[in-house]
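G.,

No rush on this.
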Amino acid sequence: RRLSDGRFHSGQDLARDLGVTRTAIWKHVKGLEMGLGLVISAVRGRGYRLAAPMEMLDEERVRAELGGASRAFLDTLSVAQVVDSTNSCASADPPQQSRLAKVWLAEMQTEGRGRRGRQWVSTYGVNLYLSFAWRFDLAMNDLAGLSLAAGVVVAEVLQRLGMDGHALKWPNDILVDGRKLSGILVEASGESGGPATAVIGIGVNFRIPADQGRRIDQPWTDLRQVCERNVSRNRMAGMLIDGLIDACLTYENERLSPF
């Protein structure tokens, strides 16, 4: 987090503030490079810095984007550093009551996934990985249109943040000029007659490094390439949660027709 501003921080200052040796700092930096794939410059006499500034996810900043009505429907908001999959985390601890959301955000996923078992490249700190769990008093079959409703939420949030020219492709992609900007994965569980819990996983490409982009097996883009504004990950996360709460409340009563 200290390095997230993209400025140089001397090894001496870091060691002093953290109460460790400069050798320990050097080893930790190497661990960040190897374990998280971060690109960190080391310059003698100046210290260490990230190749580019990084906006870290912050629970308070995400919550600040929620409307007053939405806050009453948010049970928990968890912000993690590294997880296997935010959808897996959300599925392991689902809401116990209807009309209460549990949300997971992570800086990095080691086993991020999309539809049909596809891997979702989940680089540390540069994209958005969010999973939203909601319990419906509906039968499992009634959730068939939820992916489209979630896609509408993502498309509308992008538009409010200054995006233009994006399109929703049924059932789970946001495309710009035929290239994937965002993906949605909805996983449902429960009794056939209800209640049913849906985990809505959303990935948004903010800034994919070139080496990671080569691992993606389909045309892709990111906000750095297609949006003129500098979009905050924390702001978008809060706006998505706000929109998903409203969408789930609407969907429970009216199904897909309002979307």
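When you get to it, here's the other one too:
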Amino acid sequence: MDLGKWRALFHAGNPSRQTTFGKELRERLQSELHRQILINTETEQLPHADNRVVLSRDQVDLMGLPRPEIHFQLGGYEHKGMKTARLLHEYIFEKMGATHISHSGPHTGCHIMGVYRMGANPKDSVVDKNLRTHDHKNLFLLGSGVFPTGGTANPTLTIAALALRTASYVSAKLKEE
């Protein structure tokens, strides 16, 4: 759970839902901006068989290649987590004596993960622990697609660590030849 004011521009909620302008807006900002708080909760996204990326049968790009289609739905675990978080937020705000509470809907960090999973078994994964594909020994896939779930932390450092491990593996293999 994050506690802070990192969305300070979202005075008393989402600006697209506000109808305050001019002097009234200025007065409201002066009154409320320094007295607001944001509570943000993130939940892990579990793998679901229906969540996938496939090649489109209907749409092609400028080169005539099939465009990707992303199929993604949140499951019961995620919805339950968001509901629990909202109830917790309301409890905290009630204990604080908050008088104006606004909730936003679920948002995503937009890290596409799990498209080509890492694992030991070619039947349920695409790459091994060194990110080499099971089917093509000279093809390595680096990126967040290897993660089977989407946790709440930014995946960048883990992606970098996996890339460095893969580079070391490839370098060692080249020295063997």
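Residues 53 and 70 are 5 Å apart (CA to CA). The first helix runs from residue 22 to 32.

Enjoy the weekend,
O.
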